[in-house]
Design brief:
The structure is a single chain. The termini are far apart. It is built from twelve helices and ten strands. The protein is of the alpha/beta class and 294 residues long. The chain binds ribose-5-phosphate. Ribose-5-phosphate (R5P) binds next to strand 10 and helix 10.
Length: 294
Amino acid sequence: MPEKDDKDAKNFHLDVPTPNEPFFLRGSNSLDWGLKNRLAKIFNPESGRTVMLAIDHGYFQGPTTGLERVDVNIVPLLPYSDTLMCTRGILRSTIPPSYGKGVVLRMSGGPSILKELSNERLAVDIEDAVRLNVAAMAVQVFVGGEYETQSVHNMTRLVDAGLKHGIATLAVTAVGRDMVRDAKYMRLACRMCAELGATYVKTYYCDDFDTVAASCPVPIVIAGGKKLEEREALTMAHNAIQSGALGVDMGRNIFQSENPQAMIQAVRKVVHEGEQPDRAYDYFLTLKNEKKSA
Ligand code: R5P
């Protein structure tokens, strides 16, 4: 027991107003403390943005190019990520538990690349997400897909479980092969996810992306998509950020780059500092050449 505190001279700082700051992320002010705290492990409170490193591709397509050896190819990139998005198999087997930033856990799965991808179910129990101390849980939502309702139901069940335990839900808008990746579709998919309770949404960049971001009341991040030339990928990230995205959840454009460490650092410049694409690309080249001459 502490000794009795019987000093009369206390300082209540009566001239200092009690702070009442809104939370820094759009649409997130009414969330509980634990959920906000977890979101602050994903989005940098200084910039309000995030560089999520997405390496969950193996959950439906096996050892994707660049992810053949996560220990060799990905672990060295972790210091440059704000958050890691992965499966529980990779997390437990390969990611050092000393990784202190947010983990976004892939929670849905089922079909492989050989089958109908929208036929996913929830593939991880909420208790395991709690056990793994994750910041958010990711679930694929196939708006317009063959199993649309099932995938939306996966998300809403996860939202309910996440709210109970203070864990964020990331809805990933999955665009089927035959669908057009235009702003009209993205607005529909992102808004549906937000309305049905997703804490934040991941989607693809498209023309008129500002209308997608404006009509989605919660944070949006963009996926990188298929591998592009580095300057082009940095331009896409820049355009997305300038149009209202609060970050990237980028995989192949980082780990399939000719120099992943240089690329992720260049992406950080674009996301956190609003760097212009040409300057970010020069930064990429500088880092790449430094490594060569070292
Ligand atoms: C796709 O289903 C996975 O969730 C990936 O995490 C996502 O597509 C982002 O990776 P990439 O930037 O390679 O598209």
